């Protein structure tokens, strides 16, 4: 493993790859800092512009956006009390009080340091366990894989919204959108409605940009009903030098919290559907409980900022472990990254370590480099990002809409893709308004072809005889888990009346 | 939210049934040589979708307690506002289709900036021209990708 890491270091340390990673981190940080924008939107919009890049540059660029977005979301949370992403809600609890005390720069530095440490630790975990897990996954056949995919979708549906039924409907909708195209067995067109452009299936970018980016922009524009686009444009009080700088004693005091929260982020990041929001909330609660000064939490505790940010950033590399090991994404960002892998001719899953090991280890090196660049860009650009968050929505949203149109066109398919993206933007807008889960929809859409293929193979292998499933104990375990998820969550939704008994949802980005 | 869920549930169930009994049989060939028919997967998914719709409807109709504290997702006035924004975007997309990105793009950006309430020309003019030109040359010259 170490040999491969060193061997691929040369591929990464080129002007082309390093500049793309730096650009990705910068864009991600910028987008994360802007309220109303999120990293999934940024990845969706940026994806078509990676076509001219090499696979390694493209994936590292998109991972850079993902990492930068996770860290950058702390900027607006700390400075103007507006979280850039749902996972940064926790950062506002202590970050904004620190700003009011004139310690905004100290809070930003602690947030950045915690983000980078969480990110590096999770990347090391990814490097250490993804390949062994993939080796285990190689023993899995189509029957087991079909059961795992079914479980993943039901599990994500279960945790990603207020209503399980809406979650599962989103999953089915995503799977259904993946069905048009040429049938793999008969070669006949299916559900193409006479459009030749649909023979290769519904284009990923039209779906991703439409449902994630353009619909989000429509929601942002919609927010201005009765004219209210402005952010809070308070001036940030600036304290003494001591209030601005982070001391070694403060870093030492927060280090156990950062390490503990990173671990929580890694564990929760591994599980599909459970996201950065849950891990930052949980880390914050644990940090408060274990702190020597719990009374400071909520009033401006550096530990609170450190806990939320390290957990948030640790989920980013950790959520890539299931993608590399079994080819199953558990979040919006990883679903999009998985789509990027496929667009660049790579097949995520256990075979990637055999077929494209050089690229995988190149990506690992790129991820470590991205973490270092994240620190550099975040530290040097602190005052720039603090200024940029005050840019009005009226200037940002129209340009992003323009980028969406350009991006959908670039994929190929011409204006057909643009019109298709518009259709999915409307679908996405109403999904957002009616609280349908995007994660389940997109994961269903991306996993759809694999799910259909493995299901058809399973039916052939078992001669349509359910009794033959007994030869596949792993499949039975996952099928039982999927059935238990469905029965349990349906009964929670239908039988229990008290909404407080239903767990808080997460729409993981 | 509850009433909206009932209406959405009925509409989605109707769409699901339409898919299941009309569109899928008409748009997918049922013949197969040996394995599973191409109809199988879409039919399975549409049936599951309809079942989930029924679940959502049952929850919305018989379990009002689970909607306590939830606001209605859309308001009538807001729909008009949203529709107007969509018309601007759609109109600009037609303009891009007809006249190209470089000529249609500024209409899109300027239209949306105006729609969002910005009236200062010194902000509108550069914001609707500079990004369009930058994106156009970035995509066509640097990425060598086509734009309309």
Residue ranges of chain A: pLDDT <50 for 5 or more in a row? 497-509
Q: What sequence of helices (H) and strands (E) makes up the elements of chain B?
A: HHHHH
Our measurement of the CA-to-CA distance between the termini of chain A, rounded to an integer number of angstroms, reads: 30 Å
Number of helices of chain B: 5
Structural classification of chain A? mainly alpha
Main interface by residue count? A-B, 68 and 77 residues
Domain count of chain A, please report it.
1
Given the C-alpha coordinates, what overall shape of chain B results?
Answer: flat
Give the strand content of chain A: under 5%
Produce the secondary structure layout.
The complex is a heterodimer of chains A (509) and B (148).
Chain A lengths: L1 H11 L2 H19 L5 H8 L8 H26 L8 H12 L3 H34 L4 H18 L4 H14 L3 E2 L6 E2 L13 H19 L18 H4 L3 H23 L5 H15 L11 H17 L2 H6 L5 H12 L8 H4 L1 H24 L1 H7 L4 H18 L4 H19 L4 H24 L11 H23 L14
Antiparallel strand pairs in A: 1-2
Helix pairs in contact in A: 1-17, 2-4, 2-17, 3-4, 3-9, 3-15, 4-5, 4-6, 4-13, 4-15, 4-17, 5-6, 5-13, 6-11, 6-13, 6-17, 7-8, 7-21, 7-22, 8-21, 9-19, 9-20, 9-21, 11-12, 11-13, 12-13, 15-21, 17-18, 19-20
Chain B lengths: L1 H26 L12 H23 L13 H24 L1 H15 L5 H22 L6
Model description:
The complex is a heterodimer of chains A (509) and B (148). Chain A has a two-stranded antiparallel sheet with strand order 1-2. The model of chain A is unreliable at 497-509 (pLDDT under 50). Chain A is mainly alpha-helical. Chain A has one domain (2-496). Helices cover 70% and strands 1% of the residues of chain A. Chain B has two domains: 2-67; 76-142, no CATH class. By secondary structure, chain B is mostly helical. At the A-B interface, helix 8, helix 9, helix 19, helix 20 and helix 21 of A face helix 1, helix 2, helix 3, helix 4 and helix 5 of B.
């Amino acid at each position: 493993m170490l040999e491969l890491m060193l061997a691929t270091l040369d591929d990464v340390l080129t002007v082309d790859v390093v500049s793309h990673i730096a650009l990705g981190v910068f864009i991600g940080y910028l987008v994360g800092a802007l309220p109303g924008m999120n990293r999934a939107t940024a990845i969706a919009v940026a994806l078509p512009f990676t076509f001219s890049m090499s696979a390694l540059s493209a994936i590292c660029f998109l991972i850079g956006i993902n990492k930068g977005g996770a860290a950058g979301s702390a900027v607006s949370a700390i400075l103007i009390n507006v979280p850039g992403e749902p996972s940064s809600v926790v950062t506002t609890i202590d970050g904004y009080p620190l700003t009011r005390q004139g310690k905004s720069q100290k809070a930003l530095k602690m947030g950045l340091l915690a983000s980078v440490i969480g990110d590096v630790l999770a990347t090391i975990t990814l490097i250490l366990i993804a390949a062994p897990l993939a080796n285990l996954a190689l023993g899995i056949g189509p029957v087991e894989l079909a059961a795992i995919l079914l479980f993943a979708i039901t599990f994500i549906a279960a945790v990603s919204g207020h209503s399980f039924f809406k979650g599962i409907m989103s999953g089915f909708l995503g799977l259904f959108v993946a069905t048009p195209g040429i049938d793999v067995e008969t070669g006949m067109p299916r559900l193409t409605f006479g459009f030749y452009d649909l023979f290769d299936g519904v284009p990923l970018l039209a779906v991703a940009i439409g449902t994630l980016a353009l619909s989000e922009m429509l929601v942002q524009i919609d927010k201005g009903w009765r004219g209210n686009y402005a952010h809070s444009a308070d001036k940030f009080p600036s304290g003494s030098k001591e209030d601005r700088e982070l001391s070694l004693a403060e870093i030492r005091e927060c280090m156990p919290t950062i390490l503990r929260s990173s671990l929580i982020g890694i564990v929760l990041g591994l599980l599909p559907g459970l996201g950065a929001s849950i891990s930052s909330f949980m880390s914050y609660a644990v940090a408060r409980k274990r702190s020597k000064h719990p009374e400071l939490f909520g009033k401006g505790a550096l530990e609170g900022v450190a806990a939320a940010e390290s957990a948030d950033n640790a989920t980013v590399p950790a959520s890539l472990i299931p993608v590399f090991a079994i080819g199953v994404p558990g979040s919006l960002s990883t679903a999009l990254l998985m789509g990027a892998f496929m667009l660049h001719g790579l097949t995520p899953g256990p075979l990637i370590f055999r077929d494209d090991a050089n690229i995988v280890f190149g990506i690992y090196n790129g991820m470590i480099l991205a973490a270092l660049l994240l620190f550099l860009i975040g530290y040097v650009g602190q005052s720039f990002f603090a200024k940029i968050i005050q840019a009005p929505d009226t200037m940002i949203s129209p340009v992003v809409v323009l980028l969406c149109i350009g991006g959908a066109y670039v994929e190929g398919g011409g204006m057909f893709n643009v019109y298709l993206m518009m259709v999915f933007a409307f679908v996405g807008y109403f999904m957002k308004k009616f609280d349908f889960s995007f994660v389940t929809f997109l994961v269903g859409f991306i996993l759809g072809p694999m799910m259909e293929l493995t299901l058809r193979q399973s039916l052939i292998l078992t001669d349509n005889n359910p009794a033959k499933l007994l030869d596949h104990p792993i499949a039975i375990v996952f099928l039982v888990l999927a059935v238990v998820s469905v029965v349990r969550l349906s009964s929670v939704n239908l039988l229990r009346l008290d909404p407080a008994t239903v767990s808080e949802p997460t729409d993981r980005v | 939210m509850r009433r909206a869920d009932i209406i959405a549930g009925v509409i989605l169930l109707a769409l699901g049934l339409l898919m299941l009994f009309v569109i899928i049989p008409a748009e997918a060939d049922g013949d197969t040589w040996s394995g599973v028919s191409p109809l199988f997967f879409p039919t399975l998914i549409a049936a599951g979708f309809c079942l989930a719709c029924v679940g959502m409807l049952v929850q919305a109709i018989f379990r009002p307690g689970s909607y306590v504290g939830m606001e209605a997702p859309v308001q009538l006035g807001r729909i008009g506002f949203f529709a107007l924004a969509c018309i601007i975007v759609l109109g600009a997309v037609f303009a891009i289709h007809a006249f190209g990105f470089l000529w249609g793009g500024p209409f899109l950006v300027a239209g949306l900036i105006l729609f969002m309430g910005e009236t200062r020309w010194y902000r509108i003019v550069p914001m609707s021209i500079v990004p369009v030109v930058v994106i156009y040359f970035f995509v066509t010259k640097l990425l060598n990708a086509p734009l309309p």
